[in-house]
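If it is no trouble, might I ask you for a protein's amino acid sequence along with its backbone structure tokens?
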Amino acid sequence: MIAIIDYDAGNMKSVEKALDFLGAEYIVSRNEEEMRKADKLILPGVGAFGDAMSKLDGYGLSAVIKELVGAGKPILGICLGLQLMFEESEETPGVRGLSLLKGKIVRFDDSFGLKIPQIGWNSLEFPKTSKLFAGVEEGSYVYFVHSYYLKAEEESIVAATCEYGNHVHAAVEAGNIYACQFHPEKSSDVGLRILKNYIEL
């Protein structure tokens, strides 16, 4: 059973649709006991870093997430969900993230003449072997929508990268923590394979 963490995230329905297609058993919840009973967690997200942290804190979810992840429960962050796992974001200075991992979220450099936000398909490179990308070919395309990107403090946790003017840490894998800046639920067969890998961990 997977618990999709409900804090009014914008991409909730598309994540549900993808899990339905894969035949996964899941619930959408912000109930602490239901989250404790789940085998895995998914932290989706579309929107602003500060607003999202305010909602997680307001619903009492931040402390529960930190506790469960600290106890070893697997979690998958998607898009803003990835960003929230880190310490801070230039989008909302002074607001602390969940700080599950070390690093910060920074805005794309507009000096490259590329459109910001990055909206559309981009190809992935894999600096290390990872469970999340098992069976996914290097160079596969996935779908992004973001103006800010991750700079992880520890390169060793970076499972996938892409180039969009800046060198983007597009996915991370660290113990029981998994996260993608892109949207696997909107990334066709490649994205479904990534979600299936997480489901089958």
The first helix runs from residue 12 to 22. The chain has a mean pLDDT of 96. The chain has six helices and twelve strands.
